[in-house]
Amino acid sequence: GNSVTQMEGPVTLSEEAFLTINCTYTATGYPSLFWYVQYPGEGLQLLLKATKADDKGSNKGFEATYRKETTSFHLEKGSVQVSDSAVYFCALHLSFNNDMRFGAGTRLTVKP
Amino acid sequence: DTAVSQTPKYLVTQMGNDKSIKCEQNLGHDTMYWYKQDSKKFLKIMFSYNNKELIINETVPNRFSPKSPDKAHLNLHINSLELGDSAVYFCASSQPGRNTEAFFGQGTRLTVV
User: How close B75 comes to chain A (CA, Å)?
Assistant: First the structure.
């Protein structure tokens, strides 16, 4: 089946620290990959995406590279801010049936 | 204008009751989804519809029944509510294709007492 496995949290970092949240996937087919972010009391919103192997998605200082050989899409940011505190979800999407699966979510807390 | 709107935002009800959650999207998308988010934030797909046709139906109790009167609406009806149904339910929509993203509603927090 199709599934996403991501690093369990919670993750607590100091401001300006380096962030990595690991994500790997299993899919029957060639998925597009996404990172979504959920702020408290809100729905999920797209952070970045990549639709084919070796593509790099980036937004707001966050980056992730689609690695087909390792079936991974790890999220990184060089210097986190307090405002980055949220829950981050890795997701895959298969276009042939529009299946969209999410990882378990990783809660990030950034302290001043 | 809210792209994906769901109502109500909060729902508190007793065990055994039947309740519905409504979802509407004004993005012109063909696909709509229901997800359940538990207290640990795990987001699990329940159903997806494409142009009013059921595409994905995960292992969800028969007490949950989705209804899509048209492609802009996907409602979720729950019969005989149980304590374990307490969660946040999210509606989402997307357009088929590789370069797509899902747009989410604000969620409905269901509490069964």
Answer: 17
| pLDDT tens digits, A7-23 | 888 999 999 999 999 99
A93–B42 CB contact, under 8 Å? no
Chain B partners of A43 at a C-beta cutoff of 8 Å? 4, 90, 92, 104-107
Tell me, yes or no, if B70 comes closer than 8 A to chain A by beta carbon: no
What separation in angstroms does the CA of B7 have from each of A82, B14, B72, B74?
31, 18, 14, 11
Q: Which of A18, A8, A27 is nearest to A68 (CA)?
A: A27
User: For the segment A82-97, what is each residue's pLDDT rounded down to a tens digit?
Assistant: 999 999 999 999 888 8
Tokens 């519905």 locate to B20
The C-alpha of B101 sits at a distance from chain A's nearest C-alpha, in angstroms, of 7
Query: Using CA atoms, how far apart are residues B24 and B46, in angstroms rounded to an integer?
Result: 17
* B68 C-beta neighbours (distance < 10 Å), count: 18
